[in-house]
């Protein structure tokens, strides 16, 4: 039987995620216009919350890398910094690198090869194939299954697995975080609108923020903890 003990921050983030996702589900059925044009619109509240979550997670990663460099070593800091950089890139992609904010016009290349005519990679179309569908959907889902289900299982069972991921500073999800992602995915699938992806991104980002704050291997960020082989 699974037992979860949440602190106040964990409860706050989980409550925010499911409150906003469920609100989106209700709005999409009762007022589709408001849902599309106000709630999940580009540069709207859901998108900006997603960006804030990514930037906050990046800041935590950079801080940890700096604080633990002398104790954990180069590879640990490299992987931790890389995670922060990936989150910044994701945030930049989310807002098309500030293009709409600053009124920057897309180049001809992006106008011709981007599904929305914006300066970003995830909406690119190459030979009629949407990168968003191929990489950020199918491939991403496969990677998430491995990351959130397969690896944590072997991490708990195998000492060499634990040493490898702990030594590199690769954070892994707890059971409740994996379950939460599945619930967010299930709820957003009930939304009869293509913009449900915005809510899925928001929910996934904030649950990943929980993984950054409270990973399965939280002990690796404790200065006094020795990572054993």
N- to C-terminal distance: 30 Å
Helix content: 55-70%
| E-strand count | 2
CA radius of gyration: 19 Å
Number of domains: 1
SSE-based structural type: mainly alpha
Low-confidence parts, pLDDT < 50 over ≥5 residues? Answer: none
Sequence of strands across the biggest β-sheet:
1-2
Q: Mind describing the biggest β-sheet?
A: 2 strands, antiparallel
Proportion in β-strands: under 5%
- Element order: H for helix, E for strand: HHHHHHEEHHHH
Continuous helix count: 10
Shape: globular
Indicate the mean pLDDT: 90
Helices and strands in order:
Blueprint: H1 8-30, H2 32-39, H3 45-72, H4 74-94, H5 99-102, H6 108-113, E1 125-126, E2 129-130, H7 131-157, H8 159-168, H9 175-188, H10 196-213
Antiparallel strand pairs: 1-2
């Amino acid at each position: 039987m699974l037992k979860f003990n949440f602190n106040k921050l964990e409860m706050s983030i989980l409550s925010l995620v499911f409150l906003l996702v469920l609100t989106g589900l209700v709005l999409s059925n009762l007022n589709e216009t408001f849902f599309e044009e106000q709630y999940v619109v580009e540069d709207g509240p859901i998108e900006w919350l997603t960006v804030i979550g990514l930037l906050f997670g990046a800041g935590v990663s950079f801080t940890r890398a700096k604080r633990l460099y002398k104790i954990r070593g180069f590879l640990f800091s490299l992987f931790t910094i890389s995670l922060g950089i990936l989150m910044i890139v994701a945030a930049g992609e989310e807002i098309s690198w500030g293009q709409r904010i600053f009124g920057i016009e897309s180049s001809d290349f992006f106008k011709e090869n981007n599904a929305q005519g914006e300066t970003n990679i995830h909406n690119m179309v190459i030979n009629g194939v949407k990168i968003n569908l191929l990489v950020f959907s199918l491939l991403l889902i496969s990677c998430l299954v491995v990351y959130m289900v397969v690896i944590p299982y072997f991490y708990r069972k195998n000492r060499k697995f634990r040493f490898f991921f702990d030594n590199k500073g690769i954070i892994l999800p707890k059971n409740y975080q994996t379950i939460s992602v599945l619930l967010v995915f299930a709820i957003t699938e009930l939304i009869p609108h293509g913009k449900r992806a915005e809510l899925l991104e928001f929910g996934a980002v904030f649950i990943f923020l929980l993984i950054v704050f409270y990973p399965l291997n939280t002990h690796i960020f404790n200065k006094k903890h020795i990572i054993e082989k």
